[in-house]
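Hi all, long-time lurker, first post. I run a small reading group and we've been trying to get comfortable going from sequence to structure in the token notation. Rather than ask abstract questions, I figured I'd post a concrete chain and ask someone more experienced to write out its structure so we can walk through it together at our next meeting. Sequence below, copied exactly:
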Amino acid sequence: MSDKKPFEYHWTRKEANFGPPVAGEVKGGTHISIENFLIFEGKFVALRRPEANPQHEVPERAQKAEKALLYFVHNLPIWGETLDEYVNRVVMENAGVKVKSYKVVDLNMELYEDTQQWAWTSYTLVELATLPTPGVYGNEITEVVTFDIDSIPDEFGWWEKAELEECLRSALKV
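-- Answer (accepted) --
Happy to help. Here is the structure in token form:
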């Protein structure tokens, strides 16, 4: 039996076509990331991290803040991982707890002006099996903060409060 396909793709309009993984960000390239909104017993869970999310830069807002800011679990999948493998791995590595369940609630695509990186970000709502505790999970978590949709803290490194509220309200409807 031949491995030859009965057709051959020809991308003529710059359609997404990815090569093998590379070690650094490529100007004009693409990356896929996933923002995982954590929930435990009906409350959202945020992690206070002095050094922001592991393997990510510290956002400008956090650099200017008087105290460490809050983050959800966010990272890039490893090439070849399934979504299930990614969610379970990244939550364990970055929060130290197991996942009870999760669902995809949104997908966003945007072009970063400075690097011309095309970013695909999906958003998941992740129900945790247990509440995380402070400790080192990729980097230090100094506090675990729980809140509901009507008491969102205005202390997130990557999110403005109004934008986060809109996103979380939408996630709860899915």
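A couple of things your group might point at:
The chain is about 20% helix and 35% strand.
The beta strands are 30-40, 43-49, 69-71, 73-75, 99-111, 118-128, 135-137, 139-141, 143-147.
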